[in-house]
Each structure stands twice: as C-alpha cells, then as structure tokens.
Design brief:
By secondary structure, this protein is α/β, with parallel strands linked by helices. It has a single domain, classed as Vaccinia Virus protein VP39 (Rossmann fold). The protein contains eight helices and eight strands, in the order H-H-E-H-E-H-E-H-E-H-E-H-E-H-E-E. Strands 1, 2, 3, 4, 5, 6, 7 and 8 form an eight-stranded mixed sheet that branches. The radius of gyration is 16 Å and the shape is globular. The two termini are 23 Å apart. The C terminus is likely disordered. The structure holds S-adenosylmethionine (SAM).
Amino acid sequence: MLNDKGFDLWADGYDQSVGLAEEEGSYPFAGYREILNEIYHKIQAGGKKTVLDIGFGTGTLAAKLYEQGHTIWGQDFSERMLKLAKAKMPEARLYQGDFSNGLIEELKQNRYDAIVATYSLHHLPDRQKIRFLMSLLPLLQDGGCIYIGDVVFDTRADLERQKEWIGEEWDEEEFYFIVSELAEVFPQIKFQRFSFCAGLFCLEKAETGSSSF
Ligand SMILES: C[S@@+](CC[C@H](N)C(=O)[O-])C[C@H]1O[C@@H](n2cnc3c(N)ncnc32)[C@H](O)[C@@H]1O
C-alpha cells in the first residue's frame, strides 16, 4: 500500500502514467477519464457548488471545477500532490491529512453540495470505507451527493474472476468496491459502470440501511 511518501514520489509522473493506462484501457484506470467527465458534468449542471474532493491528487477533476467557479475544498495526505494541486487552484482550501483518521476538523465544519472521491477510497479497508462514507453523509447539503469513481466489481465473485484474469498486475493491497455489498448498506446508492473494472457511485443524503459497520 502506498503511503503519503509513496504518493509524493508518484505525484510528478501521475497524470502521465494514469493517461497511458487509461488509453490502453487496462486495469486499474480503464474508464478513468469518462468517470471524471461524468462527475464534472453532473456537478456543472445547476449553479455554483461547494465541492469537497477527498484524495484530490494532482487536482485533475477539482481544477476543472475550480476553473468553472465552483468552490473547492479538499484533503490529501501527500505533500507533493497538495503542492501540484495548489498550483492549479490557488484559492482552493486544500489540506494535508490522512483520511484513514477521518476528515480534518476544518473540513468537518463546512457543508458541501458535492463530495467527490476518485480512485482514493480503495485505500481504506471495507468497514472503514463504510464508516467514513457514513461520516460524510451529514456534511452534504440537502440534495447533495457523494460521487465515488473507483475500481469496482459487481459482486465478490466477479472480483475474484477479474483478479485471476488480471494476474500479476493485480494490486493485493487495495480494497476495491463491490456494488452488491455497498448497496446492502446504502440502499439509495446509484451505480453506473464505465469499464470492466471501474464505475461511478452516487450516494445521496437519505436514510441508510441497517448495518453492523
Ligand atoms: C490514485 S490517486 C487519485 C487522485 C485523484 N483523485 C484522481 O482521480 O486522479 C489517490 C490519491 O489519494 C491520496 N490518498 C491515498 N490514501 C490517502 C489517505 N489515507 N489519506 C489522504 N489521502 C490519501 C493519495 O495521496 C493520492 O493523491
């Protein structure tokens, strides 16, 4: 699992390496651009929004929204990613912090029209992911939505099949989303698939299902 220093080292080559994997249509970034575009268009519909980006990286998505006048807040633990993103969005409120410990205090005080997390939450084990998502829901404005674009499989059996097919490239240290499992906890969640290995969840503020998480 990459820690903050690992992401610091990846930061300068990140956009290029993701672009290459994305163009090849290979795991794990097949569908990456389409997912970010879809989130961008969903947030663009309507007026100016307050957006929280969790694990913003180099700011690929957040900077596009920033350019359109949306107010951007964000948290990422990589100092280098933060620096690159800040250069693109000087007025954005970007903070350094490890989301495995939750959001930093400043971000918890605000309310958001949209919360986005692209290719970041698979760094949290499943139970921690659920707890984190539950802690984010109260931070949404009414009608707001959490957009999660990430590596995702329909069922645990599908994940196992893909893991076998992908072979050595498979990253054993990441915890990918499973649609059927997330839908049990959040019955209101909507899902759209963009590639064999990636898709987009929209989680609106609503009653959550009962769960043991
Ligand atoms: C694969 S990159 C995705 C970046 C960007 N969201 C995108 O779609 O291109 C994952 C990002 O999440 C950040 N990240 C991973 N684990 C984190 C954690 N525990 N706390 C805060 N940031 C984390 C990394 O520093 C990195 O910027």
